[in-house]
DNA sequence: TTTGCGGCTTCCCACGATGGGAAGGTCAAG
DNA sequence: CTTGACCTTCCCATCGTGGGAAGCCGCAAA
């Protein structure tokens, strides 16, 4: 089957499938005479494995390890388990960090009246500043261009978790 | 003062200070005759504001908004508060996502004996596969080079939260 | 004064995972 | 045969950060 079909069946974009091949996460696909990549059910299965692993927050590099563990029918289940447990630990650390941010922000926000007056403990907290002796001048209307750029929207989508 | 001093005082790396200037997050620094950038206390203060905002998980673009809010002494505190509240929401979404990953992984790990036998519900869960009819062939010893790369270690540091 | 060193400058490259898009080849249906 | 959907490769951008080179600057010790 073609890459588009494999993509639909696995939930991995064609871009990513080619990328995974390029980086060696998956073996080079077979090719039709035309040059089109050809996938079979086992390939799709592997791609689904990869997608599920990504959904669980593993990096591509870690997934390389998982694929090896999957392929190795003689490795101990404890190897897999410790891999998973280590990942859980990392995820929990991340949660803890975010939790700390939330706590800080909430305590700041709790003290903010949120009315039309300008005094704001949130900004003061970020500035560690009660007066405004050091309040900066207004930034000149910066259209937020990257180094030489002309602004691009392109993916202002859903929250993502990058580890 | 020089950029290195401002960096030490603010906790923002010199690389980042220049980057923030380049992207317009901060105004172009004054220069000595030598061409060296020159910072004053207000600049350092702004950098500290930026660093604290980053630590709270705001993106650089959002910090642009925060700086504007800080500079605008006539804006309502409710503007700041809704900004902060929105951010808290995004943070919580992220926590929820990670929590889901952890729950899934833990339930998988709970069923794994973690002994020296190979049967492993974790791998099976990722593969959605109870037998091993579709178990992939071993990946050829891939030294995990990027497209053309010769591997780089470079920052294998602490867990970070990227939003 | 020369030498040396550390700090500064700009410029380019890399990371990880992903998407956009251009230029061109292929295939099946009409 | 044309059309349109699909495929190929190649390059570029994202976001925030660091690495490192090549070259200038400033200060202090020899």
Total DSSP E strands of chain A: 2
- The Rg value of chain A, from CA coordinates, equals 24 Å
**Largest interface here, residues on each chain?**
A-B, 89 and 88 residues
Count helical runs of chain A: 6
* Beta-strand content of chain A: under 5%
Structural class of chain A: mainly alpha
Order of helices and strands of chain A: HHEEHHHH
Largest sheet of chain A: 2 strands, antiparallel
What's the oligomerization state? homodimer
The CATH topology of the largest domain in chain A is what? Multidrug-efflux Transporter Regulator, Chain: A, Domain 2
Order of neighbouring strands in the sheet with most strands of chain A: 1-2
CATH class (first level) name of the largest domain in chain A: Mainly Alpha
Bulk shape of chain A: elongated
Residue stretches of chain A low in confidence (pLDDT < 50, at least 5 long) are: 142-160
Determine the mean pLDDT of chain A. 84
Please characterize this protein's 3D structure.
2 copies of one chain form a homodimer. Chain A is an all-alpha fold. The first copy, chain A, has 2 domains: 1-75, Multidrug-efflux Transporter Regulator, Chain: A, Domain 2; 77-134. Chain A is built from 6 helices and 2 strands, in the order ααββαααα. Chain A has a two-stranded antiparallel sheet. In chain A, helix 1 packs across helix 3. The radius of gyration of chain A is 24 Å and the shape is elongated. At the A-B interface, helix 3, helix 4, helix 5 and helix 6 of A face helix 3, helix 4, helix 5 and helix 6 of B. The structure holds a DNA duplex (30 and 30 nucleotides).
